[in-house]
Amino acid sequence: MKRFFLLITAIAFLTSCETDVTDEITLNGETPRLVMEGGIERNTTNPVSAQRIFLTTTIGFLDEVQSQPVEDAIVSINDGQSDYLFTHTEDGIYLNAEIPAELNRTYTITITWNCETYVGSDSLNEVAEFDDVYSEFEEETLITEEGYFVKFDSTDPVNIENYYYYRAFRNGEFIIIPDPGNSTTLVESDEFFDGQQRFGVNPNEEVIYELGDSAVVQQLGISEEYHDYLLQLFEQTGNQIPIIGNPPPASIRSNIVNTTVPSNRILGFFYAADVEEESLIITE
Amino acid sequence: MKERIFLLITILTLSFAGYSQSNHTISGYVKEKLNGEELIGVNIIVGGFTGTVTNEYGFYSITVPHGIYNLKVSYLGFKPIDREVDLTQDIKIDFELEEDNYELEEVQVTSSKQKQTASVRSTEMSVVQLSSKTVKRLPITLGEPDVIRSLQLLPGVSSVNDAATGFNVRGGSADQNLVLLDDGPIYNASHIFGFFSVFNSNAIKDVKLYKGGIPAIYGGRLSSVLDVKQREGNIKDFSGEVGIGTIAANLLLEGPIAKKENGEGKGSFMLAGRRTYADLFTGLVEDLDGTTANFYDLNLKANYNLNEKNRIFLSGYFGRDRFELESFLGTVWGNATGTLRWTSILNEKLFLQTSAIYSNYDYNLDNLRSGSEFTWSSNIVNYILKPRLSWYINSNNTLRTGIDFTYYDFNPGEIGAIEGSSINPQQFQEKRAIETAAYVDFKQNLSDKFSFQYGIRVSNFNRIGQDNVLQYETGNPLTYNAVQDIWEENEVIGTESFSSGESIENFYGFEPRFSARYLVNDDTSLKFSYNRNYQYIHLISNTTSPTPLDIWAPSGQYLEPQYADQFALGYFKSLKDGEYDFNVEAYYKEMYDVTDFIDGADLLFTENIETQVVQGDARAYGLELQLSKNRGDLTGWLSYTLARSERQILGINNNEYYPSNNDQLHELNLVGMYKLNSRWDFSANWIFGSGRPVTFPTSRYSQNGLVVGDYQNRNGDRLPAYHRLDVAATLNPKKGRKGKWIFSIANLYNRLNAASIYFNEVSEVNDVEVATGETQATRLAFFGIVPSVMYQFKF
């Protein structure tokens, strides 16, 4: 997909030119903000051992340092019935193995750090199952290299608004590439295929397999808010060549708010998702 | 407001009083001798001081007292005509002007084409005019002579970057320009992502751009009017022209219709076609196999004289762009417009024109990705009727009045399945509206020193059914949450249905227009103008999408009309008997209810656009200076613009003013054309512009395995300055030969001007795509040095 954008610039008279100017740019920084990653996952095929929340802070865009993990926060999640306290293990990772992941529940996270409190919630919606998962060999095209791709068929439930997020793993490793195609491939709403069976959906066009690789595919049922968040995330991270910034890039808003000092916003999304998973070994 | 109308009527009435009956009228047409083409803006002077100018049909009418007069007809680049007239009754005289091939061609880019001090004498200000000849003499940027690129060499006209669709006038956005091709509106004036404009320079006769002081006869857009007239075609002989360039080839045919004994047709036609070479990019680069990118356009114009007083015209434009990527996407878009016009000389003082126009801008996108193939199409159709009456009351007073009716049919989107995919067909709600405007425009020479042009335009925009309008919880689609500084979407609680023709929302606009000129002396004048304009349709443009996705949204329950007030002040000076023109203009423009995207707007296939945009105010102000050299071997101009364009919209940029995308503090253009001898012409232009606004990230973090940027201020940073030099040489044919060569080099010193600087995660290591976690800043430049050559042959 990145090739597609290179194409567009190539068409811009075969003379367009990209130059690395990292060393010539000085950016205005900002005071570090709290960043969270993670959420509640319900996976009936391959249940998670513990639910996981990861906390760090922002760093300058072109800084060549690693961000600092936040190790002294208090993280708890309420599932509508009880509070579950997450314990810090190492490097900003907070875990809890007790909290149940159940359909149609709303989960609310509360983080307290540096005397400020952050609160946000998301709901867990059921995801459609795979009808079939298989691999296919494809020749090189404009957008993709040649190789084996994992594809699936799935039937969308009728008259229910569904939002999907797809994940692909190769030999046990989750793969995602900052690619312009992500925003149209990795997340989808059923607006135009409500109640239909879809065939040959490629969960990630950037993940190419070789014979003998093990592949895992996940289809996540997510909330509309998380879908919109991911769409913005993929548009901004994948948009390698913004022909002109319109709509211009803007801070992607979290579903968590700072209730103490609202302008000191947190970044990242707290999600709840139902996960459909299937694995296979690539064969001819 | 009522008081003002009253005052206006009083002025109108008073100016008619004192007008005596012992006057006679001279009227007629002025044409080019070679091909019978009507000439616009020809200066006609009666008795040394009273004068008029031919209108857009080459018609003039002037009324003076009984007597013997010396009549002088003059037009830049043509031999003037002097004739003595004994005026004892109303007479009709047609003139034919012969092109002046012996004198050196003069550059035709002044505020008007009258005579040397035209820019000084005219009441109009903030107007630029370009002839197709000048456009063709300027260096070619990208393989084709281009009207809109040429306009950008003038003060106050710019574009956001080299590949931006449209152009910006005095800090206004691209959708605020009314682009008319023979009176028909053009909604997207560009081909291939904005690299070319839709105007084929062979088919164009004259281009006039109003940056301010917009007369009451025009309306519907805030910032400018670009009035493009096509050629009528040769009324005497059948002829043609073939042009072969590096990007496209074009063909022009013209000739008389129903030739009479005097060697002239009762009418004439012009047909011009242009096409880029088929699938230009295929095969050049291996990666581009399976790609199609091309465009073509057709221009047609025909006219026929029913009798001495009545003529009919037919003009049409049809253009298509195609961009396809095998098994990924295909898009086709284009404008089609057709105008049928009837002009009638009711008597020597009354000229009536009526145009009936059809216009369609459509856009089609095929998503060819496996598993979710679909086709999406949208269009906007207009039916327009414009009657206009011009009354040449006497040599000091001209009145134009008329009504513009426009019926709009917006089809925002229709989604269908292709190749047997499992997509549910879907039709977005069509939207309809009727725009009606009535206007009176009055030109008045009060004395030798003072002249005025003023008028009013009263407009109405009526959104009508059939429609189903969504109703939101609080009555509005969005609510601003001040604590979180964010726009929140409200719940839809139902729909309100409107039957066919039922009024949904009705808007009125009262648009006064005023221009004044004070002649300090023969070569110096001061001018002032004010205009208020309303615009009822809004362009919501998503240019981050790979294709130019343009959605036009009409005003309605959730979208207010935008309107603007502009004031301009000008100083005009003519030096060395018109060899040089110098002018300075200062303007201030306040715009209300302009639209912008909320942070994180998503537009692709979004039906309810009102949930993605918000409205606010904008202001633009600046100073424009221009020094032109009009005569001699060397002609050209130097222009400088100092300007600001800012917006203030709730929920964007912490509610503070932020620069518009087109904001540019300094802009300098130096344009020179040099005639070496009868065969060689040279031209060059140098452009300098200070950096455009851009939004750079302030920090980064990680999410879902990707590096994400965080942003603070919209358009808070600046790109580096833009500058480039273009040169061209034209080899004219020897006597008796017909071929002409044009050599051009754009961006001679190969400056890589930043169209954008973008920030991202390094995603490729040794040709393997991978998320690295490292970040970089990359500058994108659209073109370096671009040579081009063009061959033109006349027959």
Radius of gyration of chain B: 27 Å
Radius of gyration of chain A: 20 Å
Total strand segments of chain A: 17
Q: What's the mean pLDDT score of chain A? A: 87
Helix count of chain A, per DSSP?
3
Sheet with the most strands of chain B?
Answer: 22 strands, antiparallel, barrel
Low-confidence blocks of residues of chain B = 9-20, 102-116
Helix/strand-derived category of chain A reads mainly beta
* Range of strand content of chain B: over 45%
Proportion in helices of chain A: 10-25%
Distance between the termini of chain B: 59 Å
End-to-end Cα distance of chain A, whole Å, is 25 Å
Q: Sheet with the most strands of chain A?
A: 13 strands, mixed
Counting DSSP E segments of at least 2 residues, the number of strands of chain B comes to 55
- Estimate the mean pLDDT confidence of chain B: 84
Shape of chain B: globular
Q: What oligomeric state is this?
A: heterodimer
Order of helices and strands of chain A: HEEEEEEEEEEEEHEEEHEE
Query: In which range does the helix fraction of chain B lie?
Result: under 10%
Model regions low in confidence, pLDDT < 50 over at least 5 residues of chain A: 9-14, 242-246
User: Biggest interface in this structure?
Assistant: A-B, 98 and 97 residues
